UniProtKB/TrEMBL annotation:
Coiled-coil regions listed: none
Protein name: Haloacid dehalogenase superfamily, subfamily IA, variant 1 with third motif having Dx(3-4)D or Dx(3-4)E
GO MF term set: sugar-phosphatase activity
SUPFAM superfamilies reported for this sequence: HAD-like
Transmembrane segments: none
NCBIfam families reported in the protein's UniProt record: HAD-SF-IA-v1
Length: 235
């Protein structure tokens, strides 16, 4: 209070933070997952077009399995779902040796780290399949919060993965930005009350990502880094 006038302190600038999906966002693995799911389905004598499988990648494995089987009209059982998930994991592990970081992924994460901008990874994959890819990406699990399907009750399009990642970073989810390649990432970000940035590197189109809630869409991590000033990523 100065001479009867209340002095209001200046507003502090909100700290930016980024919550990244993994497959199709930081690493080029979407089609490896698609082919692994096809192999798993074929092992169960379930015939489903590859494009239909691709449209489900990005959501939780359990929910994806339910939706895929619903499209085929085949009876769903807990035992069959468990078998499909195990078959997918086995098939993906074989293919994951070829998975590489997307262009600019390492540079983007390095930039954020050096700029002291908090970031975390939240993936619908389980640690057994995500672990080797995270290592190839150069993510230090002792320093970077990584939330996998094993650690939450529900995965995308539910918001649990991103909410948990924000908690691990100790940031307000309302000031965080989710970066993902699928409509399921964008829907989860909206339900979490976070902004969403879409990347085209997972195969979804710009209009699809924007329709699901993305306020910016870039080609890949390199393109996002080149426009980092547009998304509150300045130092």
């Amino acid at each position: 209070m100065v001479a009867g006038v209340e002095v209001v302190p200046p507003l502090r600038r909100s700290q930016s933070s980024f919550l990244f999906d993994l497959d199709g966002t930081l690493v080029d693995s979407v089609y490896h997952h698609v082919l692994a799911w096809r192999e798993a389905l074929e092992a169960e004598n379930i015939n489903l077009s590859i494009w239909r499988i691709h449209r489900k990648v990005g959501m939780s494995g359990g929910l994806m399995t339910h939706m895929l089987l619903r499209e085929t009209g085949i009876e769903i059982s807990a035992e069959r779902i468990a078998r499909l998930q195990a078959l997918h994991s086995k098939a993906y592990k074989v293919r994951s040796a070829d998975v590489q970081p997307l262009p600019g992924a390492r540079d983007l994460l390095t930039y954020l780290t050096r700029a002291d901008i908090p970031w975390a990874i939240a993936t619908s994959g389980r640690l057994e399949t995500a672990g080797p890819v995270l290592e190839r990406l150069g993510v230090d699990l002792d320093r970077v919060p990584v939330v996998t399907r094993d650690q939450v009750k529900y995965a995308k399009p539910d918001p649990d993965l991103f909410l948990t990642a924000a908690e691990r970073l100790n940031v307000d989810i309302a000031t965080a930005t989710v970066v993902g390649d699928s409509v399921w990432d964008m829907l989860a970000s909206r339900r979490a009350r976070a902004l969403g940035i879409g990347l085209l590197s997972g195969g979804y189109g710009q209009e699809e990502l924007q329709g699901a809630g993305a306020y910016r869409v870039y080609e890949d991590p390199a393109d996002m880094l080149n426009h980092i000033d547009e998304v509150a990523g300045r130092q």
